[in-house]
Amino acid sequence: LDAPGAKFVESESKAEPVAAWDVEVGDENGETVLQQMRRNGMSSNTPGEEEIDILCPDRQHLVNILSSVVYVFESEGANAKMGNALQSQVAKDAFLDFMAKYLLRGVVRAPKSLTLSIISRMSSRSISPKDCPARLFAQDEVIQLLKALPRDSYDRHEVLATVKQSRMLRAALLLHKEGVTVCLDGRENVCALSEHFVSAIDCYLVDEDLKFRKEVFDYAKKECVVASVATSMMCVGDNKEATNAHELLRKALHTKLSDLVSLDAVLTAQLVAEIFIDDLDEVMNSLKSVEGGEIQFKFLHSIISEDLSRADPVAGQVLNANLSIDHHQTYLSLMAQFHPDMVYQHLSTHDNYRTEECLKLCQEYEIADASAYLLERMGNISSALQLMLQTLEGRMMTLKRIIRGIGPSGYSFDRNALRRTGGLGRRKQDHNLAENEKKEKEIQSVKRILIVSLDLCERNSGPSSARTEHGSQLWFNVLDRLINAKGFLRLAKELPEHAAIMSAVLSELLQMTMQRMVSNIPLPDLVRKITTDHSGNRLGEFREMIMSMLKTYSCEVDVFTRAADVMHHDVRCMSLEKKRLKLRGSRVQSVSGVQLGKRVFPSKIKAIDDITSSIILAVDSEGDATTREDILDDVTRSDVKNKDIVAVALSKLRRKRERISGQKKHRVWGRAQTTVNMMTTSDVNFCKGKSSEAAFMGPRHIGALSGAEHYGRLG
User: Fold this and answer.
1) Residue 430 confidence class, pLDDT cut points 50, 70, 90
2) Please, what is the end-to-end C-alpha distance for the chain in angstroms?
3) Segments in 583-629 forming alpha helices (H)
């Protein structure tokens, strides 16, 4: 069948059951027609015709012949010899492998019974759980064969039972998906729809690959959407009762929600938002009794903790909008039961709960930080801080007992027995590692309690009138409790190594407290509190802390001083730059060729008088002012119309120049000499309390910085 140059007769014969295959194998001499033709060198053509290539029999016909030969052993009676039976099984296995190969290629066909035998033969390779690669390879071959075969070429129920027995779950998943499709198309009883759908979900959930398991969410949504848009109604049993396929799938999916939450709570919440948004209370009730409520907590946590909103903002917004205060209260009760360390963080960041009920709940489960926060919200700040400080002392006592168990003094074992077994060093090391992990965990717990206490003090101390009742006393209460900790812990009676560990922890707690206090309490008050109230104690551990705080303050003062100096310098530079720009100008020596300060002929005066308001002066590098046309705004053209104003201004300018040239120049200390290029006439008159008509010749444009003083006028 694999010969590259072989040609086969095209046949329209169909695959028949094995019992119906009855073919003529050869003549009475045992020689087939094909062999006789090859032996005689003849073709199937008549004499005289052009010889053509010999065509091989039809592939399907060859398969029928092989099948009739292999399965002839089944007709033997009970007296058949063992050798024939073994030979029959070997031949059948080889034939089934042969058929599987060419069925996958699609060149032959087989009846349903033979197809089932082929799949059974392929599935038998995956029974051994130890050979995982071989089992996966065999399952892939079965899946490829099922995809290649037409749906009517095998009995789906029999094949499904075969692959399930061989634990080929992905092959079973393929068949269950096909069953769902057939039911939705109306070609099979609708009673099997829910069964196939639930079984398909189970096949996903028990798969070994996590990524493949999560594909169940997309499959469930796809099938529910397909069923929801189906226009046909299906009948159930003999009652012919119309039932919506979408409702059947929703009910089936509802029974698997708890398993889906265990797989991925966020994806399950997203699925609920799309399919069960109108039945949220029913979903919550169905999850309530599963695993003592932990599944319900995971589902609510995925919504309220904003995990769902980060994955799907639309679904998160929809579900959060449908959660009531009772749902939030249920979430808090489950959190207090399963994760008490999360309660304080939730209470401090949310307000969808009943304060009094939550306080009773936290007191019932002995959650100190959450209880203190709720007491604070109810206005009982002193009791809240007292509760936190008592809890802090209790945690420090627990930490001291844990530290006692570290090292040889706290380790009890039979040394001789362990030496005999060779496990002394290993067991001792394992014990110390476990104790160290327990110690670090308890230290973090103590720090967390202290941080909560400091947060409470920070929220209730400050300049606000509502906080003056407490002021800095809350901080000092925490500080007193930490300073006196060595007394009630009795560290002097502990072993030196244990006391050193506890002292280091206390020093770290004091440093955390002082760092938070310096931003809320004046430094002199803080130092006075330590040196006055605790003057009789040895404050060696405070020395480095106070020096560090003083250095920090000194550094901050230095930084602020330098910043102020930089600011003043920048302000001075900006003022000088503004003054320089304000006093900028050009020294005008002539106007349109007419020298200023000299005798002017009448014709020149007339030329100057002809300057209109629409012309301004442009001064070149040599001090010669020439007229230049410019487009002024409408306001300027409407305001400056009087030519006499220009003439008066020019005459005043000439008189001023003549007066200055005839006078002796004096130097005035304290300010620059008043000249045309330093102070304008308007500035001089303004200093003397006077004003001139030239000051109103045109507009003075003011923006970030003023323009040149001579713009639009000559005085």
Assistant:
1) low
2) 115
3) 602-609
